[in-house]
């Protein structure tokens, strides 16, 4: 089994190079061959120029792309960095089109389910509460920006105008679990008194683990493996017992369904110690992402738009030896054969928002950093030569140019700009949206 520290940081997407083996790029990526580094000149017929000046102009130029997404059950919209303003804005516009025109009702972030649910409540209330404090308390800092707030504000307005067809924010991650536990307490505390010890244990275990994740950003942090295992196993068991009791609880149907999702997610929060203890292996964060997505669309007719990093949503892992190396898309393709569509987003130059903290949390500070030029032989360096500054293309039409070559996969830290995964694009994504120059997302 890999080192325990690495098994802990499997929970961190693309952590800083100094901290985890999965992030020691470019050395962790497979070495590029001579064929991989040859400059690609894309066939002009593959290029679909995109107008990003306004929503209306954007909608007209992406109609062929949306047509391929419209009939799917799960549409995944990736991000090549965790802090690019244009990636947030254009994914919002795509999500809006899918919701307004094609029956999608959920957008799922790389965020714990309970935290997203707290923010979602504000999208349905009248009068509408202020979003900023809720976002800062319940969402990871990668979502705490003006661009995400713009989408949530639109969702508030949409819900005021469409009472029968509401749209919702949700989450597929399982990191900071206190929001899950508090929702369970609110929903079940007045039920069978025998459930209260399990609720109290769940609250205790999530508080312990959340505090540990926050402390991991401190140089003085000392990991207590025994306490981590004991706490996590107790939390997992508490969530399990409450899930078993849920069918007999006297609750409205909608409340029961929400609590079921909350408890499923809460159990995932403790999957890391559970897998270490009982299966002697690391937990797969990507399989948990997929499992949570599957739960979100288990009702007939349900459709979801997923927002996460390109590396996660890809059908291929950037590092097959790392259980946080990506490949959520492979799990989703098996769960929904022919019903999964993934769009990657990528850029070459400009700025991006990042945090110096290796473990991203709701309190991680975000600031703008320069985006270095892509390395020679990468997809980005070739795509930047296309005359159009913004365009998309169907990866399955690349033909002989679809060679395996480096794709930049920037995480949440400033140093993660040197991180690459080797991809044959058609095996990783259905389409790619490229913007030559981009800017950092604007923190709230």
Automatic annotation (TrEMBL):
Kindly list the biological process annotations in GO that this record carries: response to antibiotic
UniProt keywords (A-Z) are: Signal
The yes or no answer to whether the keyword Signal is present is yes
Q: Which domain of life is it from?
A: Bacteria
InterPro entries cross-referenced by the UniProt entry: Emycin_Estase (IPR007815), Hydrolase/PRTase-associated (IPR052036)
Signal peptide positions on this chain: 1-23
> Pfam families attached here?
Erythro_esteras
Instruction: Cite the Gene3D superfamilies for this sequence.
Output: Biosynthetic Protein domain, EreA-like (biosynthetic domain), EreA-like, domain 2
- Presence of the UniProt keyword Signal in the record: yes
| PANTHER family found in the cross-reference section | ESTERASE, PUTATIVE (AFU_ORTHOLOGUE AFUA_1G05850)-RELATED
Specify the protein name: Erythromycin esterase family protein
What is this organism's lineage?
Answer: Bacteria, Pseudomonadati, Bacteroidota, Cytophagia, Cytophagales
């Amino acid at each position: 089994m890999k080192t325990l520290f690495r098994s802990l940081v499997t929970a961190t997407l693309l952590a800083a190079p100094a901290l985890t083996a999965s992030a020691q790029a470019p050395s962790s990526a497979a070495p590029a061959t001579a064929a991989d580094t040859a400059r690609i000149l894309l066939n002009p017929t593959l290029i679909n120029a995109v107008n990003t000046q306004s929503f209306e102009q954007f909608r007209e130029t992406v109609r062929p792309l949306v047509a391929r997404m419209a009939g799917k059950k799960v549409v995944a919209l990736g991000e090549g960095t965790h802090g690019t303003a244009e990636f947030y804005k254009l994914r919002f516009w795509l999500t809006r089109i899918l919701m307004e025109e094609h029956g999608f009702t959920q957008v799922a972030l790389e965020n714990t389910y309970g935290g997203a649910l707290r923010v979602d409540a504000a999208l349905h209330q009248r009068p509408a509460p202020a979003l900023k404090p809720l976002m800062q308390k319940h969402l990871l800092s990668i979502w705490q920006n003006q661009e995400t707030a713009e989408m949530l504000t639109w969702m508030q307005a949409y819900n005021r105008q469409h009472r029968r067809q509401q749209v919702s924010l949700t989450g597929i991650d399982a990191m900071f679990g206190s929001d899950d536990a508090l929702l369970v307490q609110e929903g079940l505390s007045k039920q069978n008194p025998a459930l209260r010890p399990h609720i109290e244990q769940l609250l205790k275990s999530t508080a312990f683990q959340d505090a540990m994740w926050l402390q991991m950003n401190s140089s003085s942090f000392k990991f207590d493996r025994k306490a981590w295992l004991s706490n996590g196993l107790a939390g997992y068991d508490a969530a399990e017992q409450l899930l078993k009791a849920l069918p007999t609880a006297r609750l409205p149907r909608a409340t029961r369904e929400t609590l079921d999702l909350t408890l499923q997610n809460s159990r995932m929060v403790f999957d890391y110690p559970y897998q270490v203890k009982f299966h002697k292996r690391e937990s797969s964060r990507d399989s948990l992402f997929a499992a949570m997505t599957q739960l979100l669309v288990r009702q007939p007719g349900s459709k979801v738009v997923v927002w996460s990093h390109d590396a996660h949503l890809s059908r291929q892992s950037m590092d097959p030896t790392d259980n946080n190396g990506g490949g959520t898309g492979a799990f989703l393709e098996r769960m929904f054969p022919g019903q999964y569509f993934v769009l990657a987003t990528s850029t070459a130059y400009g700025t991006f928002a990042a945090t110096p903290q290796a473990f991203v949390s709701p309190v991680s500070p975000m600031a703008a950093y320069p985006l270095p030029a892509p390395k020679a032989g990468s997809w980005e360096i070739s795509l930047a030569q296309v005359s159009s500054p913004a365009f998309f293309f169907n990866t399955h039409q690349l033909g002989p140019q679809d060679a395996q070559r480096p794709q930049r996969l920037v995480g949440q830290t400033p140093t993660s700009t040197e991180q690459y995964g080797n991809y044959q694009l058609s095996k990783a994504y259905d389409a790619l949206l490229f913007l030559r120059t981009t800017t950092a997302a604007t923190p709230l």
